[in-house]
Amino acid sequence: MLFGAGYFTGYKTAPREILDTNVKSAGFLSRETTRVLSATVESLRSENQLVVYRFSGEVRVSIEKTALAGLLNGQQDLYVPATVVYYLDMKDLNEEDVTYDERSKLVLVKLPALKLDDVAFQPERSRQINNGLMTLSAEVVSELERKNYSQARNAFIKMAQQPSIMENARQQAEMNVKSYFEVPLRVVGNPDVKVRAYFPG
Questions:
Q1: Confidence of residue 48 (pLDDT cuts 50, 70, 90)
Q2: Is 19:187 a contact under the CB 8 Å cutoff?
Q3: How far is residue 59 CA from its own chain's centroid?
Q4: 42 close to 82: Cβ distance less than 8 angstroms
Q5: What is the DSSP secondary structure assignment for residue 191, as one 8-state letter?
Q6: What's the distance, CA 154 to chain centroid?
Q7: Residue among 93, 85, 9 nearest 43 (CA)
Q8: In terms of DSSP bridges, do strands 72-89 and 114-116 run parallel, antiparallel, or are they unpaired?
């Protein structure tokens, strides 16, 4: 049985490099939009992994072990909450992925693939139910627990990859990167330039 809830992690404020390098020797209104976009790309690339979404839930898994032709048995049920992070590897973002149409004042940002980090379990909040004579052995309990966590990891990844959850993560990624580009554009006096971030395909 699987339960889950998603929430996002907000983007950071205006990239440091924008104000540090682009607005030193000229007024805000005189800066070229393309230079601001280039600096924003470099700032995002320096972030490496940009966390855009988190999903939290709980999984229940069960495993059995038998011995002596079934005369001895043991079973362990494991309930464990977990969280997984969705991120963009910004090293994969290049200047060629950002285009600006002067006529329509529209910036298009082609995003790198959305990725999932490793599952982070919360064992301190887990529940473990052991049954059967074999679970009287601490060694057997440890073995069952190790195998159960492996099952739980696979189950949680499958849960986190449900289409509706992945779509939520993609939408949040697009919103975060869109805002990341919009902030410096406003700072340099281009509030009328629109930004659309998207995943190809």
A1: confident
A2: yes
A3: 19
A4: no
A5: T
A6: 17
A7: 93
A8: antiparallel
